[in-house]
Amino acid sequence: MNPLLVANALELAYGDAVVCRDLSLEVAEGEVVALIGANGAGKSTTLRAIAGALLPRAGSIAFRGRDVTRLPSHDRVDLGIALVPEGRHVFPFLTVRENLELGGFKFRRDAAKMGRLIEKMFAMFPRLKERTSQNAGTLSGGEQQMLVLARAMMSEPQLLCLDEPSLGLAPMVTADIFRTVRSINAAGVGVLLVEQNARYALETAGRGYVLQAGSVVAQGHCAALREDNRVRDAYLGRAASRTLAARSST
């Protein structure tokens, strides 16, 4: 598969506090890649750097062969990188439709295109269509997660960066969200997934990276990571990893 994203030897920091050192990862076209690790390992920081919300102190980021290391975030959106941040972050006093229109801002001069994209999102998330004129702040947590995912998809990304999509959601809603993520990927969109629920992450992704204290300590196909003792003990628990292995073999 051709590389879609290549991050090489990144050093990421907030002021004097270095979060990630010598961090490298790749996402191929049409691939789902998971980033797993403990809280504070640097997962969200990595997504922010890829999306352009945080500029690296060292290292490089290439997207479809183009160096985007210093490129502003809005230009990365135009190129095809979209970020769904942790915590949902809807515009609470705007309607569902208005939130979607902001997601499709780069198509603001093409009303027909904007309309087609909104209808596509409503087909993907029927509950949003039912609430099209409702203020986003009044939606349930699951509906807000659907909205921020749909809002990101309004830019027609080639790479979708997802930060903790299951956070605070009921299990049934989480299952719906991940079914949608798989559907998005099946349509050809690459996904870089940060997810607190390692079981869902390793079921959804084909490859993964394990971060510890801002560095990659393990990487490979998810089937292999599920058998890695460090991953099983730290993030899955042995009983959960046996269940995952059984599911994968069926």
Total domain modules: 1
- Helix share of residues? 40-55%
Q: How many whole angstroms does the radius of gyration measure?
A: 18 Å
- How does CATH name the architecture? 3-Layer(aba) Sandwich
CATH fold-type name: Rossmann fold
Distance between the termini: 26 Å
CATH class: Alpha Beta
Largest sheet: 6 strands, mixed
Number of strands: 10
Helix count, DSSP H or I runs of 4 or more residues:
11
Q: Would you kindly provide a written description of the structure presented here, covering whatever features stand out?
A:
α3 (96-103) packs parallel to α6 (141-153). This protein has one domain (3-87, 159-249): Rossmann fold, CATH 3.40.50. The chain is built from eleven helices and ten strands. The strands form two sheets. The chain has a six-stranded mixed beta sheet with strand order 6-7-8-3-9-10, sandwiched between helices. It has a four-stranded antiparallel beta sheet with strand order 2-1-4-5, covered by helices on one side. β4 (58-63) and β5 (66-67) form a beta hairpin. It has helices at residues 43-51, 73-79, 96-103, 111-124, 126-130, 141-153, 171-186, 198-204, 222-227, 229-236, 238-249, and strands spanning 3-14, 17-28, 32-37, 58-63, 66-67, 81-84, 159-163, 190-194, 207-212, 215-221. It is an alpha/beta fold and 250 residues long.
